[in-house]
Amino acid sequence: xxxxxxxxxxxxxxxxxxxxxxxxxxxxxxxxxxxxxxxxxxxxxxxxxxxxxxxxxxxxxxxxxxxxxxxxxxxxxxxxxxxxxxxxxxxxxxxxxxxxxxxxxxxxxxxxxxxxxxxxxxxxxxxxxxxxxxxxxxxxxxxxxxxxxxxxxxxxxxxxxxxxxxxxxxxxxxxxxxxxxxxxxxxxxxxxxxxxxxxxxxxxxxxxx
Length: 209
Ligand code: CDP
Known about the structure:
Layout: E1 4-8, H1 15-26, E2 29-32, H2 34-47, H3 54-63, H4 77-86, H5 90-104, E3 110-114, H6 117-121, E4 127-132, H7 135-146, H8 151-167, E5 180-183, H9 189-208
Parallel strand pairs: 1-3, 1-4, 2-3, 4-5
Helix pairs in contact: 1-9, 2-3, 2-4, 3-5, 4-8, 7-8
Bound molecules: cytidine-5'-diphosphate.
């Protein structure tokens, strides 16, 4: 069966948690596409001694190995900011395109979360969700997850990243016209997950009918 669930939205809105839960529930494969950009950004920052060289970043993206996505360092705030810088480079995005497109259409169903899954990577996705939450709720969640810094510094980082992601020329963060909007600000994790699973199940039944 080919069935793609595309999940997009701003930083720390709950895309990963929802994506993993939907994939587990349906037995689909899951790809956190943010990790691709985090891995490229972190390596580019390291190789350039704190300065990202765009040509080298694209080369890193072309050579990326799935094993590079395993490092726990990729979850840090620093990796997130580096990710959003390399993510604005067209050659980096092009280098990561095929892998994501193939993953999306693999047999057995796939869930991908990111910024441009429903708009660029897989506009033909059978189910599309755009997950959001208020800035304050997202900052509080990410602060609890990271366990470092202050809520205010995390909030400033998220806002800087969202502005770069939404304002870039290539594949900017935006909801696909046909996406289901899920605001998780006032929802518990299980409520958000249940709503997402309900929507995806409806889309599966709609496709069979
Ligand atoms: O987990 P969080 O939502 O904070 O971030 P992420 O999904 O790991 O993404 C990190 C950064 O990678 C984002 O701020 C985007 O700049 C970039 N990204 C992207 O441009 N396109 C994607 N499909 C996924 C991530």
